Amino acid sequence: MRRSLVLALVLLTTLLGAPVAATAAPGHQITYRSIPGVGGTTLKALVVEPTGRGGGPFPLLVMPSSWAVPNIEYVGAAAKLAKESGYVVVSYTSRGFWDSGGQIDVAGPDTVGDVSKVIDWAVTNANADGTKVGAAGISYGAGQSLLAAASDKRIKAAAALSTWTDLARSLYPNSTVNKQAVEVLLAAGKATGRPGPVLVEAEDAYRDGRFWEVVPISADRSAATAAKIAQINSNGTAVLLGNAWNDGIFAPGQIADFYGELTGPKRLMLSPGDHATAELFGAAGLPNEIWESVGRWFDRYVKGTANGIDAEQPVQLKPNNGGTWRKFGAWPNGNADTVALDGRRITAGWNTVADSGTILLSGALQGFLNIPTGVSLPFVDRNVAGVWSGPQYPNGATLAGTPKLRLQVTPSAETTTLFAYLYEVGPLGLGALITHKPVKVTGAGRTQTLDVELEPTAWTVGAGNRIALVIDTVDPRYLSESTRGSTVTFGPSSLTVPKA
Questions:
Q1: Where are the alpha helices (H) located in 193-236, listed in sequence order?
Q2: Are 321 and 312 in contact (CB under 8 A)?
Q3: What does the pLDDT average to over 455-460?
Q4: What is the DSSP code (8-state) at residue 143?
Q5: Model confidence pLDDT, tens digit, residues 48-81
Q6: Distance CA 438, CA 436 (A)
Q7: Residues 465, 345 within the same domain
Q8: Is the Cβ–Cβ distance between 249 and 169 less than 8 Å?
Q9: What are the protein's UniProt keywords (predicted)?
Q10: Is the pTM for the entire model greater than 0.70?
Q11: DSSP code string of 235-286
Q12: 430-442 and 374-376: which strand pairing?
């Protein structure tokens, strides 16, 4: 299978990008190259170079591939960037996957160091300008780009799409395993690559119910640590972040918090969709709002072109249920409605009709077809779930920001997993999922107050509709630690919902 892929890539580069002599009209050429990474490991790359623009050197963009995806991933976007803007673009397969050598180290030191090795190679072999360098990617490639921006001062700008900044927070939110995400990543890694010791040990811990043992590897692989944020800020790296509201692997809350810690040039774009769906077609070279901003970002901060992007509002949020971009000077944290939640008791361990949907599928349906993850509120069993109705909005409303819960809870079991869902509900009781969040509660019989941030959102509530909160104890997306038959008692609590 891998040999077939290599042959296909060679054929593609022969047909679409065989080296040609520079002509008066700007164009591009594509070659399939072997680049020595850390320790001499061979990284297979598609190198896209501009033609018809003189002898260079040319600004450089390095694009590591996503998890389980080969180097062909960015060729469409790379061709446009080379032809229209004069970049040398190196799109390479991350180590351990497909045609590249080595083993998967989960964005470990060797994988991150490969980004710098590719820069070295491109400066020497592809007529790239080592003083004008950017790094970009989707998912795994995006995480590498941020980590490399912290360690390599040559990277003037980074564009990270559908990425993580805190690996543990992404896959283990509030000490709850995102089971569907972990299973997808493990299956894809084994099908397309060669897992190294770190990934093998992480899977063993997960299978044995010891996921907390995986958490310590997160810090060195997360750009959101204090040390790496300080490095990025010290380097003055210009960082563009783009994620989807319903990203089932790397939810947007960690991205919004990371954005808030950056002090250099920055831009945050959150839009409808699931993991990698918002920017997928742009990577293939098709028209795409996210990739258009990526191109302008690099033009400004790698090439130095005064194109005005630095004067635009940096926080750009597209409502998850449709509408135009809402633009802010900072993360929205203004007006809010606070809803009092009265006390009640539920029995734990049973699923309800309320859940967070299926990763990759539910968010894609929301993003492409505006079909939300739904619920019929009258059919939510009040014996096993708490249901609270919030305010009605006669004229509608736009929610923007991070909804927050303050919950007073007393579990009867030592460990219970709660799942909180925020819905927009119409007059017939049909609800559309706005956002959600899991939280693990420990301490049998102990009354405690929990401050829980749901995932951030931008959502337009229709005129006459209301919001509602549902909390139950089982969700198919996650590993629940609830004990069937135990109880959870809610004391006086509150929900705060931010409005634009």
A1: 197-207, 226-235
A2: no
A3: 98
A4: H
A5: 999 999 989 999 999 999 999 999 999 999 999 9
A6: 7
A7: yes
A8: no
A9: Hydrolase, Signal
A10: yes
A11: HT-EEEEEEETT-SSS-HHHHHHHHHH--SSEEEEEESSSTTTTTHHHHTTS
A12: antiparallel
| Residue-wise pLDDT tens digits, 287-325 | 999 999 999 999 999 999 999 999 999 999 999 999 999
The length of the chain, given as a count of residues? 500
- In this structure, are strands 315-317 and 326-328 parallel, antiparallel, or unpaired? antiparallel
Whether residues 268 and 128 fall in one domain:
yes
DSSP assignments along 316-377, one per residue? EE--TTS-PPEEESS-----EEEEEE--EEEE-S---S-----TTHHHHHHHHH----EEEG
* Whole-angstrom distance, CA of residue 455 vs CA of residue 83: 39
Q: Does residue 367 share a domain with residue 297?
A: no
Same domain, 196 and 234: yes
Has residue 14 got a pLDDT over 70? no
- The answer to whether the CB of 194 falls within 8 A of the CB of 96 is yes
Please indicate, yes or no, if residue 329 is contained in any of the structural domains.
no
Give which of 71, 88, 40 is closest to 140, Cα–Cα.
71
**Number of separate domains in the chain:** 2
Q: Are the beta carbons of 326 and 400 closer than 8 angstroms?
A: yes
Give the pLDDT confidence of 335-371 residue by residue, as tens digits: 899 999 999 999 999 999 999 999 999 999 999 999 9
Question: Of 423, 424, 420, which is closest to residue 407 (Cα–Cα)?
Answer: 420
Confirm if 365 and 274 have CB atoms less than 8 A apart.
no
The answer, yes or no, to whether residue 204 has pLDDT greater than 70, is yes
Assigned domain for 321 exists:
no
State the pLDDT at residue 24: 56
Of the candidates 356, 67, 357, 65, the residue with the CA atom closest to the CA atom of residue 184: 67
* Domain that includes residue 450, residue range: 336-498
Residues 6+ positions from 357 with CB-CB distance below 8 Å:
246, 248, 363, 373, 433, 477
